[in-house]
Design brief:
Layout (H helix, E strand, L loop, with lengths): L7 H30 L1 H20 L14 H14 L14 H6 L7 H35 L6 H21 L4 H23 L7 H4 L7 H18 L7 H24 L7 H11 L21 H14 L3 H20 L4 H18 L13 H29 L6 H25 L5 H20 L6 H13 L4
């Protein structure tokens, strides 16, 4: 994606457009904040935020003697910095920043150097990273002195420089991913950055993490040099061209961000989002250029038209599971197997059973079709529930049978009450997840998982509290029965 040739006039026109659109929007937002909240309230909030921050820092416990880690502190901090910088390698598959739809259509296709178009996204995201890095560095300055007896007054500046460098290093890696020579250069830069981060363990006054573990201002030389180098390379890249798939991935990432924002607003208001999880998977496939984005490699045969309505919902749930990437499907199956096995092994132990039920709830929420079924469909609540939970229940039943058989092979034969309790727990978890998900719009939300886990684990906890453990299995069966007949 190369921009047409152009001169400074187009760059100046872009700057004017930025001032007329983004700048005007920011000024209008600030005026609205001042008029709706008022300067007095803003100052009041700032003052009390500072008071609460100081009170929180003063409440941090200080040990009598400095804490000692299994490894020297410079080595640990250097390793953490190296891990943070290594995340820039993830930018080989997706860009670390994107252009919105307006910039893609009106600026990226204009005769303007890419550097001028990308300046505002770099400033916006770089400012956020610098502020976050400075906040983390300032907190580390306090904690290092309180817990480890280490004076690091320049940690905020060093963390801000490292956060800014990580963004530019990620863009460098992404922009050179399609060029063999450039890719080798970016990989060498990442390797050199990791080596410089780890170097602080052997030479405390050198390396990228020197300012995080010492009081010398010379520790800022490494982060400053890395920031200058990456900024220079990014500037050179911005004068040539856009990366080949940058425009398409910007469109996809913009749509994904809109979906996340809509889901967040829906959860905050308690309304159903109506977002199709299949759309998110398709967008991720398109982002990473997977063939399944265009043609699913695996599918389930369509049911006949004269079958019951719940069969169609079961087919949709099965299709969502089958069309997932194989690695994700195997990982999900392993997680479900571990959750069912933990539930089987923890029967009779209330706290362990509650923890296993919570883990089973989290995993089961990934097996349900996350798409909410409109209430206007001519479909009864029982049919809807049965169709959506059948695939997950079938898989969980097979895994539960294997877990109980393995337990019996080890010499611990489960009683009939234990088998009934495990079956009731699995059924109650899936059915309640479907019911709660229908009420709040998503069965994969944390609120649904917490509500279901607490409800299903309550009989065992209450039976233990009242010293009647024999009623735990009965209580779980009652919960499963009531969950099935709950209105939706």
């Amino acid at each position: 994606m190369s921009p047409p040739a152009g001169g400074d006039a187009a760059t100046q026109a872009l700057a004017i457009a930025r001032r007329k659109t983004v700048g005007r929007a920011v000024r209008a937002y600030m005026r609205w904040i001042v008029r709706s909240v008022g300067w007095a309230s803003i100052v009041y909030l700032i003052v009390w935020s500072g008071v609460f921050l100081i009170a929180g820092l003063e409440s941090v416990p200080r040990p009598a003697t400095p804490l000692r880690l299994p490894v020297p502190l410079p080595v640990a901090i250097g390793a953490l910095v190296a891990v943070g910088m290594a995340t820039s390698l993830a930018a080989v598959r997706a860009p670390p920043l994107v252009l919105d739809r307006r910039d893609l259509i009106r600026a990226a296709l204009a005769p303007i150097a890419p550097r001028a178009v990308l300046r505002w996204p770099f400033v916006r995201q770089g400012t956020a990273r610098i502020v976050a890095g400075a906040a983390v560095g300032g907190l580390w300055t306090f904690l290092a002195a309180a817990w480890f007896g280490v004076d690091a007054p320049y940690a905020a500046v060093a963390a801000a420089l490292l956060a800014w460098s990580q963004l530019q290093l990620a863009w460098w890696t992404y922009a050179d991913a399609d060029r063999p020579i450039g890719r080798r250069g970016s990989l060498l830069a990442v390797a050199g950055t990791l080596a410089a981060a780890i170097l602080g363990g052997a030479v405390p006054d050198a390396g990228l993490a020197a300012a995080l573990t010492g009081p010398s201002p010379l520790g800022l030389l490494g982060p400053a040099a890395l920031a200058a180098l990456t900024a220079y390379v990014v500037r050179l890249h911005g004068q040539e061209r856009y990366p080949p798939r940058f425009a398409a991935q910007s469109f996809v990432l913009g749509r994904l961000q809109a979906l996340r924002t809509w889901e967040m607003l829906s959860r905050a208001t308690g309304a159903a989002s109506g977002v199709d999880p299949g759309e998110r998977r398709r967008l991720l496939d398109a982002l990473h250029d997977r063939p399944s984005a265009r043609r699913p490699t695996r599918s389930v045969p369509l049911p006949r038209a004269d079958r019951a309505a719940w069969v169609a919902l079961a087919w949709r749930s099965w299709s969502g599971l089958v069309r997932r990437p194989l690695a994700a499907t195997l990982a999900l199956g392993a997680l479900l197997a571990s959750a069912v096995a933990a539930s089987a092994a923890s029967l009779g132990t209330p706290l362990a059973s509650a923890a296993a039920t919570a883990w089973l709830t989290v995993v089961a929420s990934r097996l349900l079709d996350g798409t909410s079924v409109p209430r206007t469909l001519p479909l009864g609540p029982s049919d809807r529930t049965f169709g959506r939970v059948v695939p997950g229940l079938a898989i969980a039943t097979v895994l539960g049978t294997v877990a109980l058989s393995a337990r019996a092979a080890n010499g611990t034969v489960p009683s009939g009450a234990e088998v009934l309790s495990l079956a009731a727990i699995v059924v109650a978890v899936f059915v309640l997840l479907e019911k709660v998900g229908t009420w709040i719009g998503s069965s994969r939300s944390p609120e649904a998982s917490i509500a279901v886990a607490v409800t299903v684990a309550s009989p065992a906890l209450l039976a233990h509290a009242f010293a009647v453990p024999g009623l735990a299995s009965v209580g779980v069966v009652v919960v499963a029965f009531l969950a099935w007949w709950l209105p939706a």
